[in-house]
Design a protein that fits this description.
- The structure is a single chain.
- The chain is an alpha+beta fold and about 60 residues long.
- It has one domain.
- The chain contains 1 helix and 3 strands, in the order E-E-H-E.
- It has a 3-stranded mixed beta sheet with strand order 1-2-3, covered by helices on one side.
- The longest helix has 16 residues.
- It is globular.
C-alpha cells in the first residue's frame, strides 16, 4: 500500500504501509516502480520521496 501525503516543491511525498514497511526492497519499489509510473503519468512531477518510518517493524514484511 502506498499513500500520497502531499506534494512539496514538485515532489510527491509518499508513505508505504502493509508489507512494504520494513522491506529491504522498498527503495527499488519506490524508484523503479512507483516513481517511474507516476512520472510517466504526471510529467510535471519532479520525483517522489518516501516519508515512511521503516524502523517500525510491527507487521512488517521481512
Amino acid at each position: 500500500m502506498v499513500s500520497l501525503l502531499e506534494i512539496v516543491d514538485g515532489e510527491a511525498v509518499l508513505q508505504f504501509g502493509g508489507g512494504c514497511q520494513g522491506c529491504a526492497a522498498v527503495d527499488m519499489t519506490l524508484k523503479q516502480g512507483v516513481e517511474k509510473t507516476l512520472l510517466s503519468q504526471l510529467p510535471e512531477l519532479k520525483g517522489v520521496r518516501d516519508s515512511t518510518d521503516h524502523t517500525v517493524k510491527e507487521n512488517a514484511y521481512y
